[in-house]
Design goal:
Blueprint: E1 11-17, E2 26-32, E3 35-37, H1 44-48, E4 56-65, H2 68-73, E5 79-81, E6 92-96, E7 101-107, H3 114-125, E8 133-143, E9 151-152, E10 155-157, H4 159-162, H5 173-191, H6 200-229, H7 233-242, H8 246-258, H9 266-286, H10 296-299
Parallel strand pairs: 3-10
Antiparallel strand pairs: 1-2, 4-7, 4-8, 5-6, 6-7, 9-10
Length: 303
């Protein structure tokens, strides 16, 4: 309803109810007091509430069945590949699953070439996946930043619908679950046992403010790291060399484990700054030039 920000008018949901034995659902409606949109990157709730757009990457992955001998290599191994051949602004990967591997890559700046980059990651993996059978192909949009409006009236977004995916890693599962829980807990508390409905301002001052305070620095730091180290081959060479540092490995592991930026040793952080500068200088000196590409139509779609 147009007056949903000023009144307690209910929202009407239109959906298809599952019917056993039928390929088509039965159209239904439901009136509700509040909606939490947890419906992914292509969120219909976000569209309905005019949440605004965000830039997104395309992540492409093939699930490949390989031999048991080849799987043994990945028993305690996950591979990450960098280079403008596999992505001009992200990374390629080979991640082991239960009885197969996921092989994929992603990009924001050159999405039309995603299949070219996918072929490159398969080539880079080489004999380790050679002869494997593709059993499933997947492609998903990955939000690059928060939506401009995550709350409108009594409509709130969580997870990918809100844009909660970190740079560098592209992780969103943890943040989807965490934001959903934080939103639910805040809203339940505001409703005082069902005695009242929360306002937009109240939801923003609780759920949104608490989430941003807890994870905002993580998004900012990872955004900076992606812009510094994934932007060209010189920076990628520096990134690979820095990964040899035990301190970098520990900080990275702890940050992924706790989902917040770790590393509170000023002396080691200062040393890391010096190492980073040195690695960048060396990386730019030895790196091959990035391949040029042009996609003006696609580029015009980015915010």
């Amino acid at each position: 309803p147009e007056d949903h920000k000023e009144t307690e008018s209910q929202y009407t949901l239109h959906y298809q109810e599952f019917t056993a034995g039928s390929s088509a659902g039965v159209p239904k409606t439901m009136d509700v007091d509040l909606i939490v949109g947890a419906d992914g990157a292509n969120s219909r709730v976000a569209k309905a509430m005019d949440a605004g757009e965000y830039n997104f990457a395309i992540a492409f992955q093939e699930r490949i069945k390989i031999t048991e001998e080849q799987m043994n290599f990945y028993e305690e191994m996950a591979e990450m590949y960098v280079g403008d051949d596999v992505s001009p602004d992200f990374y390629g990967w080979v991640f082991p699953k239960y009885d197969h591997v996921g092989v994929g890559t992603g990009t924001v700046v050159n999405r039309p070439a995603i299949k070219q980059y996918q072929k490159a990651i398969r080539d880079r993996a080489g004999d380790k996946i050679a002869g494997g059978k593709i059993i499933k192909v997947e492609a998903h949009p990955i939000p690059e930043h928060y939506r401009p409006r995550r709350v409108q009236g009594r409509l709130a977004l969580v997870g990918d619908a809100a844009g909660y995916v970190t740079k560098c890693s592209g992780e969103g599962i943890y943040f989807a679950a965490k934001s959903g829980r934080m939103a639910a807990e805040a809203i339940v508390k505001l409703m005082e046992g069902g005695k009242r409905l929360p306002t937009q301002t109240e939801i923003e001052r609780t759920y949104i403010a608490d989430y941003d305070k807890l994870y905002g620095p993580t998004y900012t730091v990872l955004d900076i790291l992606q812009k510094v180290f994934y932007s060209n081959n010189g920076a990628r060479e520096a990134f690979v060399e820095l990964c040899n540092s035990k301190y970098v490995q520990q900080v990275t592991f702890d940050s992924y484990l706790y989902k917040r930026v770790q590393g509170n040793n000023p002396l080691d952080d200062l040393k890391l700054l010096g190492e980073t500068i040195g690695c960048l200088i060396k990386g730019y000196a030895i790196a091959t030039p990035d391949q040029e590409f042009s996609n003006p139509v696609e580029s015009a779609k980015r915010l």
